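Anyone? Bumping this.
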Amino acid sequence: GAGVSQTPSNKVTEKGKYVELRCDPISGHTALYWYRQSLGQGPEFLIYFQGTGAADDSGLPNDRFFAVRPEGSVSTLKIQRTERGDSAVYLCASSLIGTEDTGELFFGEGSRLTVL
Amino acid sequence: AQKVTQAQTEISVVEKEDVTLDCVYETRDTTYYLFWYKQPPSGELVFLIRRNSFDEQNEISGRYSWNFQKSTSSFNFTITASQVVDSAVYFCALSEPVYNTDKLIFGTGTRLQVFP
């Protein structure tokens, strides 16, 4: 498809386990973002990439969270030693060059993570 | 401090009524962008508009209109003649590119229910 693709759409894991969430952005988009959305809340910024580099990772809550984008396309959000508080929908978005352009971010449908 | 406040948690209207969604923001600088996004039940956020802080002209797009007032730090969104398909959660957001970051700060959202 032409949109932002996120896998898995649902992930249930046990406390303490390691989780990877994948984002496949729109082809040609250099900017990629990860947000986290808890129930009844707005999306909360985690990290954004320009190309392969993390331009701003100030939203990552602690060192259990890490994200990579090795070839400037697909990105993986990695969560170590998951905790129940990590349960949320993890949203990925991409943009041609960022909000300085048209401002439009294209979001995927999210990966719902449940930590038991 | 940077903050976006959407005081209305939920609004219910009957089809064809006009409805206004409020958004108040706090920002550190004079250069910023304001956004509105729509999140239908599918979960995928859909971009509606971006407004530059130097452009206070009101915007109209079909049944949608936006009122940006810097004097009150507000960026309100009005839907005229609402339709059932307008039912969704609407988020207002802020970005401050002058700080070399492209992150969006979202409000907590307003859930709009339009009844037939």
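Late reply, but here is one note on the structure posted above: The interface with chain B takes residues 3, 31, 33, 35, 40-45, 48, 50, 55-56, 58-59, 89, 91, 93, 98-100, 102-110 of chain A (CB under 8 Å).
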